[in-house]
Amino acid sequence: MIEYRPLRVALLGAGSVGSQVARLLLTNRVELAARVGAELELVGIAVRNLDAKREGDLPASLFTTDAETLILGADIVIEVMGGIEPARSYILLALNSGSDVITANKALLATHGTELFDAAEQVGAQLYFEAAVAAAIPIIRPLRESLAGDKVTRIMGIVNGSTNYILDRMDTAGLSLEAAMVEATDLGYLEADPSLDVEGFDAAQKAAILASLAFHTEVPLEQVYREGITKVTAEQMIAAKRDGYVIKLLAICERIAADDSGEGGISVRVYPALIPQEHPLGAVRGAFNAVFVEAEAAGALMFYGSGAGGVQTASAILGDLVSAAKRHVAGGPGLADSVHANLPVLPIERVLTRYQITLGVADQPGVLAKVAQTFADHDVSIETVEQGLRAVAGRKSVALLEIGTHQASDAALSAVVAALAASDAVESISSVIRVEGI
Ligand code: HSE
Fold this sequence. Notes:
Blueprint: E1 7-12, H1 16-27, H2 29-36, E2 40-46, E3 63-64, H3 67-72, E4 76-79, H4 87-96, E5 100-103, H5 106-123, E6 127-128, H6 140-146, E7 152-158, H7 161-173, H8 177-186, H9 195-198, H10 201-215, E8 225-226, H11 234-242, E9 245-256, E10 265-276, E11 288-295, E12 299-306, H12 310-330, E13 352-362, H13 367-377, E14 382-390, E15 398-405, E16 408-409, H14 410-422, E17 426-435
Parallel strand pairs: 1-2, 1-4, 2-3, 4-5, 5-6, 8-10, 10-17
Antiparallel strand pairs: 7-9, 7-11, 9-10, 11-12, 13-15, 13-16, 13-17, 14-15
Helix pairs in contact: 1-12, 4-5, 5-10, 7-8, 13-14
Residues 160-162, 189, 191, 197, 202, 307-308 line the site of L-homoserine (HSE).
């Protein structure tokens, strides 16, 4: 039974996500009202240009360029315009006037999240952002609520669909990075500025958001270690496949125990890495996203689905809208996320990981011993060595060594690579890549 007054919903932005949010709100109005216990009335859609061509058939009377008046008359504001400004100012205006806000804006949350959450807390409003990470996949609410009584130890995610598509095409169709990027561009997968995807910035923003929820800690974006996929080669792909691995751009958030060299904390990082083909993330193909969460009591959990797309992102926003509307009906202030743990974000050097290193060396006595000594000098244990011969025309034969290490600190592993580069036993280093998920 619907007893509560209609709730006024303002939408900021009418792009591929906004137009789907509006369509679903209008189409599912009766069903949503029954679920919430109040009508959800779309009172307006703020856009920059009233004459722009738009998807769908939304009533012209809903559109306005006066975002501020729209915001001030709303109970709940949905921001899907993207970018930092004016999105930030509009969200602050909405929160400061007591409205709940739903946003899909990962860049804004990753850079100005503290300011926005503080503003919400001041007035008892709530900021919802399920759509900001991995679009349709429920991952924010599971971290914020379902796992709030557990202790998350590690998150490993494929949270950028376009780079997963590119790496997948390199793997399955043998494409070069450049050719796979052209395909991803033609399919509209890449951001307007593709470096946000291929240099790992988008994944880093999402990693910062996930880590802050998982570890109850503020995670400044600049403390997220980041490497993109632009140095991944077709040769690395072939070698990975031969060895039973697949290369994925991983966003990793994990607790790091204290060691002799320093305090414990968390690590938040993004880089391409080898993972075993049989790992659950190894099966994530095309532009799909997945987040693999490990928690002390729950064990391993896998969240999988569409990490982009207008209607998929709108699904997450509508879920947040129902939550926000129910809270209005039930009454009571919004609940801030806790950042009580305040754990230090540790530098990449403190991370424990494995490397796979491919070297060209002269095929002569004593060379293998010199290479092995370099690892021993830095206390890094070798797990696997594979040697193949590669003839080089007009020169002595060169052996290709593929060396896999046991787990060691990233500091020690990168010191090994630097020492190998300087060693007269080594002619070339053709690949250095981390190994995760084993
Ligand atoms: N550029 C993002 C991706 C879109 O490729 O996943 C969704 O955030």
